User: Fold these one by one.
Assistant:
Number 1:
Amino acid sequence: MVGPLDGIRVVEVASFLAAPSSAALMADMGATVIKIEPPDGDTFRGNRAHLHVSAKTNYVFEVDNRGKQSLALDLGKTAAQDALHRLIATADIFITNLTSKRTEKYRIDFETLKQVHPTLVYAHLVGYSSTGIDSERPGFDSTAFWARSGVMGLMGEVGAPAVQSRPGQGDHPTGVNLLAATLAALRLKEQTGLPQKAEVSLLRTGLWTIATDMQLAMNLPNGVPSRFNRQTHGLLIRSAYETKDKRWIMLTMHNVPKHWPRLCGALARPDWSIDSRFATNAGMLEHGTEIVEELQAEFKSKTLSEWASLLDKNECIWAPAASLDEIATDPVIVEQEAIKTLEDVSGKEYRIISTPFHIQDADVAPRKRAPLVGEHNYEVLIEAGFSEAEITELAADGIFSSEH
């Protein structure tokens, strides 16, 4: 099998998660990805370092940087910028998450690089925008994707504290969005022969994830969505319930006439299935709150494993709130090989989340561990056409080290 991006060269100047994760997916598909990082490494290499003292491998860093080569450059030096330009001239795609002013400072803005490479695809990951309002405002997924996009304001129960996002929860879908935009730009470049710039923001990706709610908020002022309130939430078959063993079950059945009788069968409550108040979606929305407490009491009468067989037997649509241990051994996850095994720098095996999609008859999967800082300095420059003498001179200029 071949990789969909075999033969494609990517140069990345980015840190943390969103942009690097997009480049990692390109590496999964066969692209050669060269990660440019400062001599002391991508800041994210030290993330949660206290958890990795014994392992000596940052497993969080691995997932977004697997399969790449590392070239350490001090981009504050003109010679390093010039060397980077020569490298970019050999690439197909350039990815960065630096703000526009910083890209100009290091001479890696789109206007500069399209002179270096007249058919380059330039992928820019930003918090809010590359131009105009808030273009220079720092943005992480917890602020731009989660909070400002409106997602955070809708999450959690009414009256409960604000819900914080999980680490990388917004970065990874934004990385997939950047992948889609970059590949579309690559296709457009092939069609036109012109350089292309793709821009993706954490803010707009977050907004896209709540497009269903936003459509209502913008067009039906009287139907503005808000946080869930389980005591007044009328559509009882799209809600979460706690079991006897303090586990949670999520039901998602929108067709009341079809699904309510099935749930009543699982609950052994035939009286509810023939109650006219709950026979339609409109009736459920109007009268559902009348049995919220009773319904929750029913679910608390049995354990999750007991409910699992009953809900499946009655063809209900549901899922457990799985623990991370359960996910790692989930038969579907295992069957689809959603978790792969790689070897770290010492040869020790570790598990890693695989590419979140599959292409039949194509080689799409993590291939190799993340690189050490500057591990491929010599190899990358030789392949880009630098001579031994040039590399020696660059080293003497101190572009590979922050100590000069």
Number 2:
Amino acid sequence: MKPAVRYTLAAVAAGLFLAGMALLYGHVRRAHAQAVCTGLEVSFADSLRFVSEEDIRGYLDTRYGAYVGERLDSVQLSRIEDLLESRSSVIRCEAWTTDDGLLHVDVAQRAPALRFQDGNRGFYVDGTGFIFPLHETFTAHVTTVEGSIPIEVPDGYKGEAQTDFGREWIAGILDMSRFLSASRTWQRNITKIRVRANGDVLLTLEGRPEEFLIGQPEDIPDKLARIGRYLSLIAPYKPEGYYKTVNVKYNQQIICRQKDT
């Protein structure tokens, strides 16, 4: 067979194949357009439990409305994603439909890095400093910072702290927490993180009666090194409970305050 004939037959075959694929694609699109939504399938990208499948179903029923019985090509997928991502504990949502009539929703929840607790008022922050509310039925097992939290956070608020001081203070607390978590010694020995109204941080150590005042959450490695020097060079030569507080907030200083002063 001459090369020109072979090329012609190949071109014809390719054309017929493409035409067939176009017809098949058109048929699939028409079938998909005529199909209706028969139900919802919810999946989660993590093991957190801030929202449940029932929460998702109830939220869509309330905010989106009826989707079962709606034509698949009419289901507003981007609106569903936006509605679910508007929830404070949801960081990402993907929605899609399949030819079997199901609406699929995959949800990734916002992972808390710290919990802040000021009496009955509390909130979480994630690793970026994003604030979101506590959950009524699920408590994340993360470090708690308690006391007079120096940031005004309205009930149900989500987003960054509303002042420069608040954003910087939370960033400092997060950096401190990461430093403590990276050290086996400090992670194991620090039992409480407490805050004064001015934002100064106090640490309580395992088996120690003193509180260690580190001030604002900055220069943490240097301040912890001074606490280490106190524990090795000062504490062994004093009776247990001799000091009430050990202040390392000032540069290159260790200031010890007795209980009766």
Number 3:
Amino acid sequence: MKLNFDQYGDDPSKKLLIILHGLYGSASNFRGLAKIYAADFNVYCLDLRNHGSSPHSDQMSYPLMAADVIEFMDDQNLEKAHILGHSMGGKTAMQIALHFPDRVDKLVVGDIAPVVYPHHHERIFEGLQAIPLDQISSRGEADKILSQYVDEAGVRLFLLTNLVRNDEGIFQWRINLPVLIREYEHISAAPDGTPFDGETLFIRGDRSDYVSDDYVPEILALFPNAKIETIDHCGHWLHSEKPKEFSKLLLDFLK
């Protein structure tokens, strides 16, 4: 599984930072921030399997996604790196730290905990499936259909970044939608492994319920040296809702 990636910076004197996006996302989600972080680090933004321009696979699990990232690091001769992951990417980052601790310098997890979450993407999946790809002629038409399932315009805009045209001009999904639906149980699962005692930072939004206080015992059981920071007036999409606050916490921790 050769993952697609974007690279920012190529200074051998700098430490490395690998960024992993969330469900329905891609490497481009962090493009703007990665350019800023490149002042201090060589930054790699990856497309996880079944997302972005990375290969599609019939399987989707955190052990597999963690192994994909390790394969990427091996291919690029990256012995060790800071790893930042948001949401699904955060669980992938945790899985890497729990299974390959010697490859992780510092770990940063964006608004996700090492727990099993209930299925809450049913309406999104229904909406994406309801779009007749061979009949629509614009993203506007797709958005009109999707709006019957997803109220938030910003969420729909994000989801529809995955709608692209093929060589014949027909719309298709860049994400592997059938596999994401079929394998969702594995996406909602919790990472597992030997506790990681390296420096770890969890960043959560005060308006998000993904990292509630109830999950702190699970966090500390697997990441005993973790600290948890909360961004006020912020939901799940920390890096886009509060980029300055998010970046300050990240860079202060890494540097």
Number 4:
Amino acid sequence: MKKFVALVLAVLMMASVLVACGGGNNGGNAGNTDTPKGDTPAESLEIENGAKLLVWSADKAVDLTKKLCEDFKAANADKNIEIEVQVQGEDAAATQLLKDPDAAADVFSFASDQLSRLLKADSLAPVFSAKDVIARNSEDSVTVATVDGELMAFPETCDNGYCLIYDKSVVSDEQAKTLEGVLEACKAAGVKFVIDAGNGFYSCMFPFTGGLKIDGIKDDVQQFNDYNEDEVVATLKAFSDLFHKYSDIFMSSEDSRINAGFQETPHTVGAGIDGPWNVTADLAALGDNFGAAKLPTINVKGEDKQIISLHGFKYIGVNAVSKYPYAAQALADFLTNKQSQVERAKAVAWAPSNTEALSDPAVTENAALSAIFEQKQYSVLQSGIAETFWTPMGALGNYLWQESANDEASIKAQLEKAIMLIKDE
């Protein structure tokens, strides 16, 4: 266990060096100009008596969130706080909040890809207890949510990435090391290999493996590194060639299809690229045959390249126009403290961003979280990504398994088109 925790902490420290600061302007707490700054401990906040808070939670964590909110109310029984918890997908939190900030949740969970939109709209209240929050969480989870020296959200998890999940009765641990091996094993068993190639969150792994990297946002335009286009195109073609070679078993579908295939009798899916949000269900479906590993390598013109993924975080934010800013801040702090993160790891297998909570057996003994942490060494951190990134990147991923993607010239044209659309040129 000590070795695992040391590995995780080393990965977190290494990854923080790679973080590109996100764009967007910080307008502070628009509705409350007299709020305390980031050095106010949560226990010192003057929680409003009779506060009525609305909380948005991911569906898979809603039961736990309700329980934690009851714990918070009990700890502050003298304040007569009322809390309503509603289900709201973390991937759509920003969209729903921006529709009507006044009617939106006071406290809400969101994935890091939503951060730039929330910052741009000045929808997040800065974290009042930032000093304590920074001290207890991983450096990179803090850095991604920091703008102009101010922490804008409470880190909740550090596992918003993905790995290879496979049926060990189909794919051996050795075969799981290479994409070629995984595909061949699935073909031999007559079962599917699943990637959500049309989803930019997953499909960005194709150009990232070739050396493309995001480099923050400047003047509302997505920036990229000085990548070698020929290398990126060659890597995209390697993926495309494999998808065509194994077209009878390769499936581009939502990640929920992986678990659905594991549950069918006999299993119709042998492996897929999945995230921690489905791990509990995958483990239940596969039992002793549950396998998890970092993403495999892919052979590009004779060289085995490690597949590079996107890795992000989950946060809890406070609405900048909450009518009860002190109660909302105190609740957000409570929902992301060490104990709450440990309970979340036990209940839904989400890995803590809290550095002390990482040593809990709920984390150290989870094979999928171990794989995701290992993969994090080979990832691009989800920071400073423009809203325009996702759709063109998904379209590029879809193109690779289509019949027309059979030469480097056409793939190069699609890559250039995607970059142009992402930059909105």
